[in-house]
Amino acid sequence: MARLDDLDMKILSSLYSDASVSVPKLSRDLGVNLSVMYSRIKRLQKRGVIERFTVLVNEEKLGMRAGAIAGLNIDPKQREPILDQVMKVEGVRLIREVTGRFDIIVNLKGQSLDELHGAVYDVIGKIPGVIQAEIFMEVSRRSPPVNFKLSE
């Protein structure tokens, strides 16, 4: 795979912060010819660097004001059925298999802390093979801007 250059990284950073930006505006903002911008974006897609363009929904405006992270310890022999069941739980937004204290980290969103508490302890915690579940309630959130840079 050919290396990405500084322009590719600037394009990725801009699209990461707002994928709805028009290509002509992006071209103007980065000071690049419009046809070059189109070809660069197409190349990034073809190479699989850009997988898809998507929408980031403000779940708070939909009433989903509570957030939590759950750490799970599981029976490794039941890994796949556990993951399948966790994926079906309402409010689950992301599942990560990790090293360390927990086997799985689950990100959840809901309307209230009680709802999330119930999802973790009354639903996820009762899935056969889940040995332990611990919940960490979100009290604040910050997202730093992302600027992709070339690795040195």
Describe what you observe in this structure.
The protein contains five helices and four strands; from the N terminus they run αααβαββαβ. The relative contact order is 0.17. A four-stranded antiparallel β-sheet has the order 2-3-1-4, covered by helices on one side. The radius of gyration is 20 Å and the shape is elongated. With about 150 residues, it is of the alpha+beta class. The chain folds into two domains: about 5-45, Orthogonal Bundle (Arc Repressor Mutant, subunit A); about 60-135, 2-Layer Sandwich (Alpha-Beta Plaits), CATH 3.30.70. The model has no long low-confidence stretch (mean pLDDT about 95). Strand 2 (about 90-95) and strand 3 form a beta hairpin. The protein is about 35% helix and about 20% strand.
